[in-house]
Design brief:
- By secondary structure, the chain is of the alpha/beta class.
- The protein has a single domain, classed as Response regulator (Rossmann fold).
- 44% of the residues lie in helices and 21% in strands.
- It has 6 helices and 7 strands, in the order αβαβαβββαβαβα.
- The strands form 2 sheets. Strands 2-1-3-6-7 form a 5-stranded parallel beta sheet, sandwiched between helices. It has a two-stranded antiparallel sheet with strand order 4-5.
- α3 packs parallel to α4.
Length: 149
């Protein structure tokens, strides 16, 4: 470099959770690909950090709406989906219906504030592997994901 010359290099750094997932992938031969479907940015950010704290887990995408979720889950070849019932442009039950046809092998775990027995039965009937209360059962969701990874 010549004297008096300053060179600036810019590097685009992905969010820390995604970088950690790539590093983990190289260290771990077997990992579970998780897709997160949540309309609240704040909740999605917190869930992402918790999920990425699990061993053997890689985040492969996120969505806030039904169409994004259906497209993203199929395109990412996710093994598991963490799904809220309240979404932009529809319901998590619509996602469950769509995934039954387009990705029948994916494990879907519903994490919601709508914890009535009616929603629980509907989600299970549509193929959900688990149904968790957002207010109190996030540790149970993380345990279920850990068992599968």
């Amino acid at each position: 470099m010549r004297r008096g010359t300053i060179r600036i290099f810019l590097q685009i750094i992905p969010p820390s959770g995604y970088r950690r997932a790539r590093q983990r992938r190289a260290d771990c031969r077997s990992f579970m690909k998780v897709y997160l479907v949540e309309n609240s940015t704040m909740v999605r950010d917190r869930l992402r950090s918790l999920i990425l704290g699990l061993k053997g887990v890689e985040m492969v995408g996120e969505a806030a709406s039904v169409p994004e979720a259906l497209q993203g889950v199929v395109a990412s070849h996710a093994d598991a989906v963490v799904l809220d019932l309240h979404l932009d442009g529809g319901s998590g039950l619509d996602v469950l219906r769509g995934l039954r046809e387009s990705a029948p092998g994916v494990n879907v775990y519903v994490l919601t504030s709508f914890v009535s027995e009616t929603y629980r039965r509907a989600a299970q009937r549509l193929g959900a592997r688990g149904f968790f209360d957002k207010a109190s059962e996030i540790p149970l969701l993380l345990a279920a994901l850990s068992e599968k990874s």
